[in-house]
């Protein structure tokens, strides 16, 4: 799935070069672009959109039915604290969340390719549907930025955690550093729960915006007097 998308994007880039310089040999393209586009359309309409809903449901289950995200679970995290290594239980939660980041980013790339496939050639006349396509792409980009911002939170967590452990080992008799570590881990744990909820919303919002505007994406020239997405 990813390889198809990558190949399609490479095709677009090479086509631009060929058009402007005439130095690309058409024989390099040994695949059918129409078949590739059709494959992406089928992938989005029969798989990707449904997956967005399934991922949102899984994230919802984590918050309400998974012990690892229950408030009482922090007691286990606290008991797992160490002065010399990272917290295994926190790391497991971070890796779980990162796997959903990856799932969303891959889905987003394919959906944006799907929309681009349906963008008609530039011409005068009714461009309302094209404007809607561009608005949806902008929404997807905004949600992608939100994902990447949360990824940076994990980097900051590990950096700060290292600094706390460094002081703990340097001044083991100072109780405040031990309390600081507990409070820091607690804050991070609740931040992870918030990220799960935010990520669930992102999956649902992406599904909702595509489903409600699917006809406008597929047939942008047929849209009359419409300038906003639903």
From TrEMBL:
Pfam families documented for this protein: PA28_C (PF02252)
GO cellular component: cytoplasm; nucleoplasm; proteasome activator complex
Protein origin, superkingdom: Eukaryota
A molecular function GO annotation: endopeptidase activator activity
A biological process from GO: regulation of G1/S transition of mitotic cell cycle
Keyword terms of this UniProt record: Proteasome
Start and end residues of each Proteasome activator PA28 C-terminal domain: 84-226
Similarity-based family: Belongs to the PA28 family.
Protein name (Swiss-Prot/TrEMBL): Proteasome activator PA28 C-terminal domain-containing protein
Organism the protein comes from: Rotaria sordida
Record lineage: Eukaryota, Metazoa, Spiralia, Gnathifera, Rotifera
